[in-house]
């Protein structure tokens, strides 16, 4: 990549957007919809009687669901500034037309209960030097989502890495 | 319905988790995309997927996370608590693929009062590994 664009991307590292609020509180309808699609029968997610006797004292949402609550609405369109998307776009314009998600991770700190209001921030955490991979030559771009609830408790931290590359011939 | 629990006391490193298989249909891909609130056209619109260079619609990443969580707590029982999941992504999952899930306990340890295992998991489709990585699960103890 031209040194110029790489330097611009390096300068963006640390850039943050948000907090953005989830459009809906954590709720049982979305939990059920999720469990049906995943075929997840965990009674903590669906059986009030079982969940009441558990250490949570009631139903919780599957922890992996955190991002689903924070997805942008299909309508009306909403601009969600995202420094990773901006970095990907800049690389696209610099001739790196391929993109593939390579790694994602979630660490959970606090359960989500129906009624919880979630919000998240996203931060650009790194842009790697140029690497040559099986797919082509490019850069790994990593951002980190931090999800919190209405009490300011961190629910989940989620790093996410994409490779933006010039496809190998 | 009663639920079994896997106790930390009873597991050991290199123990294998039971294998699960699921046929991923078009309905699975669309239902999971919408349940994860991901309306990106490649997960429900065949022509849009082909325009992006894929042969067909394919499973989205959030659903891979959902499947991994389900796989782990199906094994541990509801008292198993997901602490961390790290996923490396490989081959795409297309309609008709059989997704095979497996795992093995890589590490058994304690951290403060938590009794933990790291499970190395592997989700494969006929084309190759779809997702693999490590998940940390806190298990109940008999004590």
Which descriptors would you attach to this protein?
heterodimer, A: alpha+beta, Thiol Ester Dehydrase, Chain A, 2 domains, 27% helix, elongated, B: 143 residues, five-stranded antiparallel β-sheet
CA distance, first residue to last residue of chain A: 17 Å
- Mean pLDDT figure of chain A: 94
Residue share in helix of chain B = 10-25%
Order of helices and strands of chain A: HEHHHHHEEEEE
Question: Which CATH architecture of chain B would you pick?
Answer: Roll
Topology, number of strands of chain B? 5
Q: Could you give a short account of the major beta sheet of chain B?
A: 5 strands, antiparallel
Calculate Rg of chain A over CA atoms: 19 Å
Q: Provide the structure class of chain B.
A: alpha+beta
Q: Which class best fits the helix and strand makeup of chain A?
A: alpha+beta
List how many beta strands of chain A DSSP finds.
6
* CATH fold-type name of the largest domain in chain A: Thiol Ester Dehydrase, Chain A
Shape of chain A: elongated
State which percent range the strand residues of chain B make up.
35-45%
Estimate nothing, just give the exact number of structural domains of chain A: 2
């Amino acid at each position: 990549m031209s040194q110029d664009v790489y330097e611009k991307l390096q300068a963006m590292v640390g850039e943050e957007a948000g907090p953005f609020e989830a459009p809906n509180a954590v709720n049982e309808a979305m939990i059920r919809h999720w469990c049906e699609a995943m075929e997840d029968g965990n009674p903590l997610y669906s059986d009030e009687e079982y969940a009441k006797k558990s250490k949570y004292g009631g139903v919780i949402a599957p922890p992996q669901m955190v991002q689903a609550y924070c997805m942008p609405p299909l309508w009306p369109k909403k601009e969600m500034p995202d420094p990773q998307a901006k970095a990907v776009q800049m690389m696209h314009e610099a001739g790196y037309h391929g993109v593939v998600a390579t790694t994602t991770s979630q660490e959970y700190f606090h359960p989500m209960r129906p009624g919880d209001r979630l919000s998240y921030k996203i931060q650009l955490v790194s842009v790697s030097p140029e690497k040559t991979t099986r797919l082509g030559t490019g850069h790994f771009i990593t951002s980190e989502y931090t999800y919190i609830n209405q009490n300011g408790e961190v629910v989940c931290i989620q790093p996410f890495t994409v490779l933006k590359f010039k496809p190998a011939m | 319905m009663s639920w079994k629990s896997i106790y930390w006391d009873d597991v050991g490193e290199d123990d294998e988790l039971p294998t699960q298989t699921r046929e991923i249909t078009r309905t699975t891909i669309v239902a999971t995309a919408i349940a994860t609130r991901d309306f990106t056209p490649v997960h429900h619109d065949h022509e849009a997927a082909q325009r992006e260079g894929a042969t067909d619609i394919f499973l989205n990443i959030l659903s891979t996370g959902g499947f991994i969580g389900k796989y782990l707590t199906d094994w541990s029982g509801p008292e198993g608590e997901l602490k961390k999941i790290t996923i490396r992504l490989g081959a795409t999952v297309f309609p008709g693929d059989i997704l095979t899930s497996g795992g093995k306990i890589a590490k058994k340890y304690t951290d403060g009062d938590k009794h933990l295992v790291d499970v190395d998991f592997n989700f494969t489709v006929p084309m190759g590994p779809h997702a693999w990585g490590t998940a940390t699960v806190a298990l109940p103890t008999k004590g």
